[in-house]
Structures are given as C-alpha cells and as structure tokens.
C-alpha cells in the first residue's frame, strides 16, 4: 500500500514531521519535505537520499504552498497523503500584571496564522490535487493528517494563543472531512501529548523531567517515531475519518 505512495509533510525538517518523513520512506513511499527556508530541510533531504525532495515554504503563503504542490507533481506525478506538522509554540499570559502589559496581539495573531490558518491553507490547496487521483476499490483518493495538541483540550497557563490555534485545528477536522467525503479524501487529526523534539527541547532538562512525571503511562516523553507509527496506521485504516486522536499516554495537562 505504501509502495509508491506520495506524501507531503509540512514541518518535515524537524521533530514529529521528520520522523513521519522517515517512516513513509521506510515503507516505500516518496516524500516532499516542506519547511521554512531557514530550516535544515535541505540537509535532511540530502541525508535521506532517495525518493525525497525539499521545498522551502512558509505554510501561511498561498504562493509557497502552490509551488510545493507543483514540485510534487513535477517530481513524483501525484499526491496521496498530506501530513501537517508545521507549527510554533508560544507561552504568554493574557495580561502581565507586574509589567502592566497585555498579551501582544501580533504574537497571538502569528500563532493562529501559522498553526491554524497555515494548516488550513495547505489542506485547501492540497485537496484539489489529491482529488485528481483515481479512486481505489473503496473509493478513496487520499488522506490528510493534521497535528493539533492536547493543549487544544487542556491548555495550560500561558497557552491561550497556542491552545486556541490547536482547538481550531480540532474544530475544523470534522467539517473538512465532511466537505471532502464525496471525493474519498479522509481527514484525521492527531493531538500529541509531550514528545521529545526540538520544540520541547526549548525547555530546560529539569522542566522536561518534571513534565515526564505527569504522564501516567508510559511516564516519559513520546518518541517522534511513535507519532509516525500513528500516521502510518491512519493511512492504513480507511474507517478513520473526521476524528481527532489523542496520543498522550493518558496525560491530562495540569494548569
Ligand atoms: N513536541 C511535542 O511535544 C508536541 C508538538 N505538537 C505539535 O506538533 C507539530 C510538530 O512539532 P515538533 O516536531 O515538536 O516541533 P519542531 O519545532 O521540531 O518542528 C516544527 C517544524 O515546523 C516548521 N515551521 C514552523 N513554522 C513554519 C511555517 N510558517 N511554515 C513552514 N514550516 C514551519 C519549523 O521550521 C520546524 O521544522 C507542531 O505543530 C506542534 O505544535 C503538539 C503537541 C506536542
Ligand atoms: C507546546 C508545548 C507546551 C508549551 O507551551 C511549551 C512547549 C515547549 C516549549 C515551551 C517553552 C516554554 O518556555 C514555555 C512553554 C512551551 C511553549 C511544549 C511542546 C509541546 C507542548 C504541547 O503542545 C503539549 O501538548
């Protein structure tokens, strides 16, 4: 099933996205890595060698995403699977009473812009290309997988912007799955708990250790490869659609 499959992974140069790229390649797929020009996407593609290409993009740009889709067609002829992993994390309280400073609106807008609108931008443009595929025996033409966060449900102090952006991704999953159902395109979102990636490693190790202790089982950060395994499973299971799946070791984040 994966042999020859063409995937496009945003945020594919790092963390959960990179692990997904590696898993798709391991299964015999071909992959376009989409990430910021400043990311290590080019080196990543070189390291992974075959059946992979890097296209520098900002997910919020229509022009960039259209260019990435055109490159996908030029290089691999089609697109079957999109995995949206590009994202940014911010932590600011709604009001800083010591500095008498409200949350910076530009920072709130940028978080929504990248995590929510960027994800939507990729979905809306990729759907047209996936819709050109001939349907399989089940009528399926492709799969779109998004990345939210458990912060969509249990957002912590300082996560108003991040949680709102991820809740938006959760909220649009079902309506988009319904929009694309007639074309046989499935849409599923993963809401990860805590995974060891460069985003997480912005935190000092003692903070990571204490976060790990809050995960009931297994009491550790997830490995990016475990995220990639769920991506594989979603691709393989045609009954998964319009749903958000928590991948969190039963973590419920504390305030
Ligand atoms: N690591 C974790 O524990 C969790 C991560 N997530 C989400 O998973 C996704 C992947 O995160 P990680 O791999 O941990 O982070 P990461 O920081 O390792 O990777 C994120 C990638 O997104 C790219 N990116 C950022 N803004 C972009 C833009 N405008 N256009 C294109 N690419 C852009 C970055 O360059 C980076 O390569 C994110 O959406 C994050 O919010 C959700 C829950 C937990
Ligand atoms: C996003 C997430 C939770 C956070 O808010 C932190 C982030 C790692 C980097 C951070 C450093 C800080 O100093 C403040 C908090 C945060 C932005 C975490 C990575 C994954 C977490 C998440 O989405 C959990 O579901």
TrEMBL record:
GO terms for cellular component: mitochondrion. GO terms for molecular function: (3S)-3-hydroxyacyl-CoA dehydrogenase (NAD+) activity; androstan-3-alpha,17-beta-diol dehydrogenase (NAD+) activity; estradiol 17-beta-dehydrogenase [NAD(P)+] activity. Pfam families: adh_short (PF00106). Its EC number is 1.1.1.53, 1.1.1.62. It comes from Trichoplusia ni (Cabbage looper). It catalyses: cortisone + NAD(+) = 17alpha-hydroxypregn-4-en-3,11,20-trione-21-al + NADH + H(+); 3beta,7beta-dihydroxy-5beta-cholan-24-oate + NAD(+) = 3beta-hydroxy-7-oxo-5beta-cholan-24-oate + NADH + H(+); cortisol + NAD(+) = 11beta,17alpha-dihydroxypregn-4-ene-3,20,21-trione + NADH + H(+); 17beta-estradiol + NAD(+) = estrone + NADH + H(+). Gene3D superfamilies: NAD(P)-binding Rossmann-like Domain. Keywords: Oxidoreductase. The keyword Aminoacyl-tRNA synthetase does not apply. This is 3-hydroxyacyl-CoA dehydrogenase type-2. Belongs to the short-chain dehydrogenases/reductases (SDR) family.
């Amino acid at each position: 099933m994966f042999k020859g499959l063409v995937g496009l992974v945003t945020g594919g140069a790092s963390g959960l996205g990179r692990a997904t790229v590696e898993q798709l390649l391991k299964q015999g797929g071909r992959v376009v890595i989409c990430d910021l020009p400043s990311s290590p996407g080019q080196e990543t593609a070189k390291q992974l060698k075959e059946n992979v290409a890097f296209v520098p993009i900002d997910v919020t740009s229509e022009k960039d995403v259209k260019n990435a889709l055109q490159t996908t067609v030029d290089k691999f002829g089609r697109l079957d699977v999109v995995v949206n992993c590009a994202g940014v994390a911010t932590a600011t309280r709604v009001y800083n009473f010591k500095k008498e400073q409200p949350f910076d609106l530009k920072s709130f807008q940028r978080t929504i812009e990248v995590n929510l609108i960027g994800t939507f931008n990729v979905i809306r443009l990729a759907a047209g290309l996936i819709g050109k595929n001939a349907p399989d025996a089940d009528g399926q033409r492709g799969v779109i997988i998004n990345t939210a966060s458990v912060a969509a449900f249990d957002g912590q102090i300082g996560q108003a912007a991040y949680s709102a952006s991820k809740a938006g991704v959760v909220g649009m999953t079902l309506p988009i799955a319904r929009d694309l159902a007639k074309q046989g395109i499935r849409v599923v979102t993963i809401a990860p708990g805590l995974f060891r990636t460069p985003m997480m490693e912005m935190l000092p190790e003692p903070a990571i250790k204490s976060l790990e202790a809050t995960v009931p089982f297994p009491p550790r950060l997830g490995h990016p490869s475990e995220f990639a395994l769920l991506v594989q499973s979603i691709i393989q299971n045609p009954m998964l659609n319009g749903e958000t799946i928590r991948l969190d070791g039963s973590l419920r984040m504390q305030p």
